[in-house]
Amino acid sequence: CSQMLKIWCFYLLFGPQNWCSLQTASAMIPRNRPSEGQRILSRAKRGWVWNQMFVLEEFSGPDPILVGRLHTDLDMGNKNIKYVLAGEGAGTIFAINERTGDIHAMKRLDREEKAEYTLTAQVIDRDTDKPLEPPSEFIIKVQDINDNPPQFIEGPYKGSVPEMSQVGTSVTRVTATDADDPVYGNSARLVYSILEGQPYFSIDQTTAIIRVALAGMDREMREEYLVVIQAKDMGGHMGGLSGTTTVTVTLTDINDNPPKFSKGSYEFTIPEDLGIGKPGGRVKANDRDIGENAKSAYSIIGGDERDVFEIVTDAQTQEGILRLKKPLDFESKKSYNLTVVATNIRADSITGGPYMDQATVKIIIEDADEPPVFTKSAYLFDVHENAAINTVIGAVAARDQDATHSQVRYFIDRHTDLERQFNINVDDGKITLAKPLDRETDMWHNITVTATEVRNHSQISRAIVAIKVLDINDNAPEFATEYEAFLCENGKPGQVRGHESDPPVASPSISRDNSISVLAKHDSFRRQKQETYLLPIVVTDDGEPPMSSTNTLTIRVCGCSRDGTVQSCNVEAFVLPIGLSMGALIAILACIILLLVIVVLFVTLRRHKNEPLIIKDDEDVRENIIRYDDEGGGEEDTEAFDIATLQNPDGINGYLPRKDIKPDLQFMPRQGQHSGPNGVDVDEFINVRLHEADNDPTAPPYDSIQIYGYEGRGSIAGSLSSLETASSDSDQNYDYLREWGPRFRRLGELYSVGESDKET
């Protein structure tokens, strides 16, 4: 309190009759250094106060509760004094009587929400609101009471423990929390206990660890337990608050139970013709365990000496499936007594194991109609190729092994005997020859024979019959191919390259591999004399009866090198220069042929280019002018055009073919008309040519202008041509051409050079 402020009285929780007043010294008491003389010495049941601090227990209720009373020395009954309150909760949680200074708590105080409040009290003038004293600060501390029960925040819980666990085995741990002050009193001191779950489980009252309390708990008897756990504060004393939770404890499985067959013996009936791998029956060994602990493996430990059956485990149903490994035979064995064992796959470290159980399985074989059975799966016979028709080659046999012993019929599968070479007796299975055999064509014949029951035609069995054709001496020996031997001219005797020869020129010798060697008897063989020798050779075998044939061996006389290498076997090659090989001659011949082909192509293209074209005008076929743009070779060119025909028409008596087109038909030439005594008649010459053109069937069907460059005779002016003139170029001087300019200067030089050449 301030210097003038007095703490006059404290109101305690149980009413105004339990309060007292104490007037304190007017001097300021330091807040942080309280002493016994400075401390309020009065205490009631549930309220305390120290200098500048009020201590108040948390409460709950609808009525306001007096926290304390403030008083100042200035309050002498003066009504102008006014007490005001400020700070945390002022006006909402705490209220002050402005005339008396009483402080009340207007709402419920909860330490778990707020443990203390700091406020300021001051005295002011009621009329002017001016402070009469400086403000004084004080604290209201909320004291904890046990008003919160323990709570299991993470509950309900689940735990597990293996079955048959020992006493004291930990299962799980639970945890409870208390919102009360853990420092003040025992409001937050918890003690754990089991309300439900004895005598199977126990709990440590301090650590809250749940443990096994009963030995030998069997999952197969009871798998799940519900345990109720209580947590109580105040150290478990009377009056403390408590909370509960549940723990579901599950016993996990261990392999503590053996597999057990549902019955000690089983009996199955299966048909004789059951397929390999097909199931014949199922057995089941039950196991009270679960999961991997319940899985079992089945095996046959007795009664299956022939190893006919096997047993496997069905992964889905955990059944043992009996399956067939080998074919059954009712006639040889009609039943089986098997001993089957079921064994746990997994062993447990707690119980040991593994566990097993066994049962007896009787299998009865039911007779089935089976196809006949051949005495052999394959038969091998042989026969000579000259065997007569209907000769018995061999016999097959099959029988029905069923109890009925049905008769059997035999047939040949004609897909294996397309040529119907053999027959078979349907009753006794004898195979006979139907057509003649030829070993040289087919040495082996593989056929399939079927046996069918008379009573049931669907029961068919098959066997393979291999027939070997034996050889007889019915073929004369002959050369394997047409042999050709080579003999070097001027060669030494005994040198022949080949395999066969002829006695007049060689002597043969026979080797062990039926081949012969041919040796020359002399060295006087010449290609010019005889190029080829045909040597007949008689070949005889050692068969019975002996067979023989005459074969011809061709021996060619060839030119050879010094080391005996054959170079040429043709007579024409004899005149070739020595030293040229056959490869070189072939290369030269190829080059010549290539050059000839090029020349022929060039001439053909040349003729095609010089062949005059006849331009056809589709719009007007009456006239057509043919233009020739070929440039002549000059006066010295005497081969470009035969002008003798025009100069001497007296010698033209035969037929001259047209050169502007290619005639399709050839006609006999007509006898021309002779000229008169003067020797030249141009008019008659032109008329003859006109007549020939009009009557020529190869001429175009329209008019054609034919130009004749003929120079007439007897002209007063004389000839304009220099073809028959007596003068020559050497009589003329071409120096004037040089004066005509650069274009003619080169021409003058050429003519001058020509004159000088002639002089030299």
TrEMBL record:
Single GO term (MF): cadherin binding
Leader sequence segment: 1-20
Entry's Gene Ontology BP terms: adherens junction organization; calcium-dependent cell-cell adhesion via plasma membrane cell adhesion molecules; cell migration; cell morphogenesis; cell-cell adhesion mediated by cadherin; cell-cell junction assembly; homophilic cell adhesion via plasma membrane adhesion molecules; morphogenesis of an epithelium
Protein topology in the membrane: Single-pass type I membrane protein
GO CC annotations, alphabetized: adherens junction; axon terminus; catenin complex; synaptic cleft
Keywords, in A-Z order: Calcium, Cell adhesion, Cell junction, Cell membrane, Glycoprotein, Membrane, Metal-binding, Repeat, Signal, Transmembrane, Transmembrane helix
Species: Cyprinus carpio (Common carp)
Annotated Cadherin domain residues: 72-152, 153-261, 262-374, 375-479, 509-574
Protein's UniProt name: Cadherin domain-containing protein
SUPFAM superfamilies on file: Cadherin-like
Keyword Magnesium: no
Listed InterPro entries: Cadherin, Cadherin-like_dom, Cadherin-like_sf, Cadherin_CS, Cadherin_Y-type_LIR, Catenin-bd_sf
Transmembrane segments: 574-603
